[in-house]
Amino acid sequence: xxxxxxxxxxxxxxxxxxxxxxxxxxxxxxxxxxxxxxxxxxxxxxxxxxxxxxxxxxxxxxxxxxxxxxxxxxxxxxxxxxxxxxxxxxxxxxxxxxxxxxxxxxxxxxxxxxxxxxxxxxxxxxxxxxxxxxxxxxxxxxxxxxxxxxxxxxxxxxxxxxxxxxxxxxxxxxxxxxxxxxxxxxxxxxxxxxxxxxxxxxxxxxxxxxxxxxxxxxxxxxxxxxxxxxxxxxxxxxxxxxxxxxxxxxxxxxxxxxxxxxxxxxxxxxxxxxxxxxxxxxxxxxxxxxxxxxxxxxxxxxxxxxxxxxxxxxxxxxxxxxxxxxxxxx
Length: 330
Fold this sequence. Notes:
Layout: E1 4-13, E2 23-31, E3 35-39, H1 46-54, E4 61-66, E5 69-70, E6 85-88, H2 100-105, H3 113-126, H4 142-154, E7 160-164, H5 172-189, E8 192-197, H6 200-206, E9 209-214, E10 217-222, H7 224-229, H8 234-241, E11 244-247, H9 248-253, E12 262-265, E13 270-273, E14 280-288, E15 293-299, E16 302-308, E17 319-324, E18 328-329
Parallel strand pairs: 3-8, 3-9, 6-7, 7-8
Antiparallel strand pairs: 1-2, 1-4, 4-5, 9-10, 11-12, 12-18, 13-17, 14-15, 14-17, 15-16
């Protein structure tokens, strides 16, 4: 069996001229058992790509393959969607007045009731919702409903779990826990997870592979660490790490010598110290970020940002020296 479970080849799906959200000539492969995050802004084509992988949309050109077999479109089968994939949407599609257990167990046949019960309880335990089994869906929080929807999708030996903005209705306190649970469940069960999100933190936190989309075009795909450290486009650096972008002229004003049109660096690549230097920066503002501060610095009319781990060390109107230890050229 091939290690590649999903192949997307030259996929194009365009809508009417006034609509956004399509994809153009997108190609990539997904490894079996990986967690894959498709990241992009609204209208970048994330949901179109997800639905195309599942077989809910008819593409204009190109194909999607599951285990080397082409995924049929909605015009080629009675019930759209691939039987070995399941999709969890933002509305969860749960029976709100039924119990948690019944919502999940309903996805299994009654031919073997013992196995049905065992599988239902096992997936509930995986997702930490076993104590909720006798509660009705309407009694649950958004995060709890999300876990039930995931359990419902996975209970029937699903090979690929597709998730559309899975954390959009989850409180910030629960988001990291749910991210960690999805990563853990994928590792324990071997299921391949493909999720779309506008929040790059979702991909950086839990993905084995990230896919960056912009205006329907695939900008970059690879491991999160590789994409973050070596973005191929300025947009990628901006969306992943709120990068500082300087023109060649502004970079030279700050003492950065370059022949490139633009220079890009992340705030954490800029080191601050208090040494006296003729190339000093003025602290224009300080933004509290929890365990660190983000400083807005200015010199020669050029503004940059840098991180200050020793909170409160430098304040507004102070002068500091800045050493940009690394930068990217575009």
